[in-house]
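Honest question from a wet-lab person: if I give you the sequences of every part of a complex, can you actually get the arrangement of the whole thing, not just the pieces? Trying it with mine:
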Amino acid sequence: MAADSFDKLRAEVVESGLCTGCGACAGLCPHFGWYQDRVVPLHQCVSSSGACLEACPRVPLDPAALVASSAQPEFITPEMGPVRRLWVTRANAPEVRDRAQHGGTVSALATYALDQRLVDAWVLAGPDGSVGGLPRVCRTPAEVAACAGTRLTSVPMVAGFLELAARESGRFGVVATPCQCLALARIKASDNPRLRQAADKLALVIGLFCGWAFDRRDLQQALSPHLDLAAVRGLDIPPSSHQSLEAATDQGYLSVPLDGVTPAVRSACSYCFDMTAELADLSVGSARLPQGWDEARHWNQTVVRSQAGQELVDGAGEAGVLILEEPPDGALDKLKAAAAGKKRTARQNLTELSGNSEDLIYLPTDFDRGIPSPGHGA
Amino acid sequence: MLLMGNEAIARGIVEAGANIAAAYPGNPSSDIVDALAKASRDLSMHVEWSVNEKVALEVAAAAAMTGLRGVAAMKQNGLNVACDFLLNANLAGLRGGLVLVVCDDPSGISSTNEQDTRLFARMGELPLLEPSNFQEAKDMVVEAFDLSERLALPVILHSVTRLSHARGNVELGPLPGPGPKPAFDRSHHFVNVPAPANAHRRLKEKIERCRKEFEDSPRNWYQGPGRPEVMLVTTGAGLFYCQEGVEALGLEDRVGVLKVATTFPLPERFLLKHLAEAKQVVVVEDGSPFLESGVKEFCAERSDQLPALKFFGKADASLPQVGELSPDIIMSVLSRLLDVPIETRPDDYDRGIQEVARQQVPDRDLAFCAGCPHRATYWAIKEALALDGRNGFVCGDIGCYGMGSGPAGFSQMDTMHAMGSGAGVASGMGQLVSMGLDQPVVAVCGDSTFYHAALPALINARQHGSNFLFIVLDNNATAMTGFQPHPGLGTTATGQPAPPVAIEDLCRAMGYRVDACDPYDLPATTHAILRGLEQEGPRVLILKRTCALVAAKQGPSATRVTLDAERCIGSDCGCSRMCTSVFRCPGLAWDPESGTARIDEAICTGCGVCAQICPTGALKVEAAS
Amino acid sequence: MKLANDPMNVVISGVGGQGNVLASLILGRYFVDQGMKVTIGETYGVSQRGGAVMSQLRISSRRQPAPLMPSAKAHLVVSLEPVEGLRMLVQFGNPQVAVLTNTRPWLPMSVLAGEREYPPVPGLLESMDRFSRELWTVNATEIALGLGGAILSNIVMLGALQATSLLPLDEEGMTRAMAASLPAKVLDLNLQAFAQGRQAAQRH
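Yes, you can. This is the full assembly:
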């Protein structure tokens, strides 16, 4: 094991295939860099107590302890972290929904938060002109709208936030995937003064449900035989029964068989334990409705997790920006089951990687404590 | 007067009344045409820096095909480029005088290789002259021209670094009067076909005539006792070390020195006369055992006329087979053979000073100059290749930018062979993609090297659809060898204006997509390289920024760099001395007392590249007042 | 001219860019003017790139000396930089050698980078003193900066060298050699540097 922080991250995270591409290290340190969806050790650093290690979401850490340190115990669930409330939601404004991939919940909340001066700017994943995304600083509803749509590759949002926080003072929000929320939560929980400086500017984190992300270069290669990549406006994965990837183009939806693109999934995603962004203030994902996908695609489901998250969602609902509806029966249980499934898969894959069921690389062996095992209990 | 060996050669060229002098720069030969170019105003001589050594030799030969005198100068690698012409001109003959001056670099002090070009004389069956001091370096140029005209053959004058780049006493000779007017005689074809063997027969006859001339050359002589215990047979700079060694050990009565300046073809009667007196023979020469094998071959043929001789030299490793000669080497071989001690410094002095060396004498790493655009370029290449993430690699070649292979250039150059080989090797690498090579291929090339030898490789790559990114490191200079003009600069060796031949135009004409960028703009350069790595098909990125040394001569920098020490976080996390420890520009120093960087204003050129890597904005560029 | 040693072996050392070559050229021209045979061997190639550079100036009344001297046979080391003076003693030093050194360090890359410390100058001088017959010092860079540029350090060193009497140098001949080696418009400034150097040489 290397002694220096830089060597440790390089060997144990980047080279071992665990790196999520969140960019926390690169946002803190010029010895790391990011490009597209890759975060890369660039120049040897000799510091032995780097802040990079305190922000990285793939060095040994305890997610349950992080949850416990920030959430009220009565809301904590073993499968998906703190849950105050589950809603089915969508933006009230049709033009917001039209631009968005699904219900436009994130766009509506982000715009509302700007209007209400809850944040000075958002860091959002915007389009990069191809199949990937870039972190963008958005200060106006128009800039938020330009970032609407789902990115199916990792976008180094934590780097984007840290670079903004290093440049400017203010209160910022970030829309982030679960791994990125973990990095942001580590930054908030740290007492390292460099991380504290950034944490003090982090006002809101909207998490996104995430099954996995594609490797940008592999996805490009996998899609290029099927699609004109320049014409793609957005990509989406419908419910698993569809077995396809949907590309929104100016001419409408095009479908690509999922078999062809699954080898392009980023290897690091198989070691992720979090589907619902447990460490966010609130989490948003696509909805699953009894009416089927053609209806559900225009909705989201939203998990309210923290006090700040609740204030934002309630406020947006009361202001008529966001439509809040009760979720269908059993929706929370279905989500919990899916989230528990991801934790099981992570345990399996990490065990395979370490070759030892007592060594889960970056997670404690009891990281999923409290979840009834599927074969035996509930 | 005191002249550098190369200046002495240049003076010899003037005294010989040469009409054309052409060369491509390369140390240790560059100063010859540099000196002629400086003096050109007073000369009725055409002096040029040619595009490469083959063209230089062809240009010089034109004079010799019209009854005039031409000379081409080059370093050892240069003759590799020129030898195709040379090995036809030997058969085709001449009507005037053609002298090829080639300067070898034993030990490769300023070279990428160590080779002995004298073997070309044997291969081409051409007269070879090896001066042993500064006076001879001048005088033998004149003699070489005379010989060339008498034999109608190119003559090779051979020097080494320790003669070419050293200075010594030279008595000047008179300058010639006006020479003949050039005329091409169409009754005399310089064509070896249809029967090159006939031309070869004529060459054999000429070289035998040459051998006879060499028998009486005053440049060959013996100095020492009759029947010496050891005979040192030497040539070129070897004579210096032989005389030094004999004198230092007080062996004047026991050891003789046989100095041979005409090492091909060998003067046989001369050798026979002196070797008949010998017992033990040590052949002392820089480079390969060239004279040694010639002498041995001769002795084997004449064994009936010679005593049994015991040979020592490079063949049996009595002298080191690689690296240059020195007085120490000769003293050591004489000490062994004659069992005489070498006076050394006291043991305690030796031990003590070695200990001091370990403690108090830090190494000096080579670095790119402050403000050198190559440092910025290699930084961008390093970051771009890492960010691209496919383990791309860099094929390069020769120039200041060759230091990219070492720490100065963050070890970013992976192959380095001949001039223009970066493009040629990359042209091949780019074909291996179809066989599964999944690493991006990059070639780098300087501006002067581009014209010299990269062009054919680029044409080849274009024709065969080779997939690589070609980066031209265009610093508006042939910097490594002393700022000689090249075809892109709009000037000639003698300072005459010339139409510039633009690299960009040539690349477009070959069908390359051309992108250009200022390497001082690090983010733009890194992104241009990243873009280039992802593109396919023929593509060139020209990184254009004038050499910092040239820029300094053109005037003061428009910008200066300042340090806001309050913002410098030094070795703290988040920087960890990025500028001094990683970027390593000599204009920046780590100041252990303040724990910050420090700008050395005497060295800093104000280029501002460091300000782009400073993570806290402590380094700033501002307009120079 | 009678030399204390024949050939006289002088090493002139420094760092690329310090004007080492010019200093050896001026001395060489001086001795050629005095009817001597002079050979100057030089390390080239790194002269502009911060590397250690060294000229071997060899003077003889009898024959053209070799461009390289034997190991451990220097009679005099003139160094434009203290570490470089000591480096030369490692290769060419002996108990009889005399040394004249500039006292101002020129930091190597490893020191600029903070990877190692420059050895303290008093210690360097002590070592040079210990491994030589006599040591002379001059802060040539400081004097040169006072005259308008570090580039004059090499000429200050030559002035100091004359003061040491380690080589038989006369002022008139040195002025001629400088005039032959420098552009006319900077000759006066260089003569000033030479004169100030002569005042500043100190026996250690």
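Two things worth pointing out. Strands of chain C lie at 8-15, 37-42, 52-60, 76-79, 98-102, 134-138, 202-203. The mean pLDDT of chain C is 94.
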